[in-house]
Design brief:
Elements lengths: L2 H31 L2 H27 L13 H31 L7 H28 L2 H29 L4 H28 L6 H13 L5 E10 L2 E11 L4 H18 L3 E11 L1 H7 L5
Parallel strand pairs: 2-3
Antiparallel strand pairs: 1-2
Length: 300
């Protein structure tokens, strides 16, 4: 296992332990203290366990070496994992919303106890800490999946803020503030879920790299000695990295070996300068094309 994969797995396992402890504590205390907001927050934390398992499996499988059936590798498994994570979050949001709205409409609202407030504060601090640790690991390793999981932790911290406000308000004033906070929790979770799903879609539909990166890659190709200009330049994201396809135009009078060496130089320069470049396909075209066409004999 590579260093980045090990770090990602270690951070995810640590997050799973914290999620288990927090989720169980918030759910139990929420039930005892009569706080729907804290129970919803606890359920959200417990679902993090399921997503942590998805993240661990995806990290391990996506880094498997290319094989006969998957010659381009397994990078898209990370995007699939992100999509599963987003769907889990969206389902959780729907369940929380259903329960909270039902309680408000039925008038089944109780005044929560003080333990609920203290646990909400603990959850805010713990989940924000997990966000910071996980997002840094994700950015260092270039893993969209780890970054998505980090935002899952951040969403839990935000839901705990909503829980704190709802529980505190219900203790001091109208009790409907507690289930109202649960509704806000559901909305926050749903927003994060949609963002995660959008990011997963980017990795599954051959989206180009950001324009600034694309321009830097093409400039690197043109700066290669022997390349006159380019056309047909394309990039596509694939898991943590990206592929490049480019037509490099070279002097039409060059022999095949020289043209091939230029193509190899192009590939090596791009691969060396951009660590996330998984491969570069260079098609060599003669320049100017009109001269090449004019010199061809009818028999050719």
């Amino acid at each position: 296992m590579s260093g980045s994969a090990f770090e990602g797995s270690r951070v995810t396992v640590f997050g799973g332990v914290v999620n288990l402890a927090l989720g169980a504590a918030k759910t139990v205390v929420g039930l005892l203290a009569g706080s729907r907001a804290l129970v919803a927050d606890g359920v959200h934390s417990l679902t993090d366990l399921a997503t942590d398992v998805v993240v661990l499996l995806s990290l391990r499988l996506s880094r498997a070496a290319p094989d006969r059936d998957h010659p381009y590798g397994h990078g898209r498994i990370e995007s699939i994992g992100s999509a599963i994570l987003g769907l889990i979050l969206l389902t959780v949001a729907g369940g929380i919303l259903w329960d909270a709205v039902g309680a408000l409409l039925a008038g089944e609202v109780a005044r929560p106890g003080p333990w609920a407030l203290g646990l909400a504060v603990l959850s805010i601090l713990a989940k924000e800490g997990l966000y910071q640790v996980t997002v840094r690991a994700g950015r260092r390793s270039g893993s969209d999946l780890l970054v998505a999981n980090a935002w899952h932790h951040r969403s839990d911290a935000l839901t705990s803020v909503a829980t704190f406000v709802g529980v505190g308000g219900a203790m001091l004033g109208p009790t409907w503030l507690d289930p109202a906070a649960a509704v806000l929790v559901a909305v926050i979770v749903a927003v994060v879920a949609l963002a995660v799903l959008k990011n997963a879609a980017v990795g599954l539909i051959d989206t180009a790299v950001p324009e600034v990166v694309s321009e830097e890659v093409e400039a690197t190709v043109i700066e290669t000695e022997g390349v006159i200009t380019t056309h047909g330049f394309r990039t596509r994201r694939f898991g943590r990295g990206f592929y490049v396809d480019v037509h490099a135009e070279v002097d039409a009078g060059l022999d095949l070996v020289s043209a091939h060496e230029i193509a190899e130089d192009v590939r090596n320069r791009v691969m060396d300068r951009f660590p996330d470049a998984l491969d570069v396909t260079v098609h060599v075209d003669p320049w100017p094309a009109e001269m090449y066409e004019n010199e061809r004999s009818p028999e050719e």
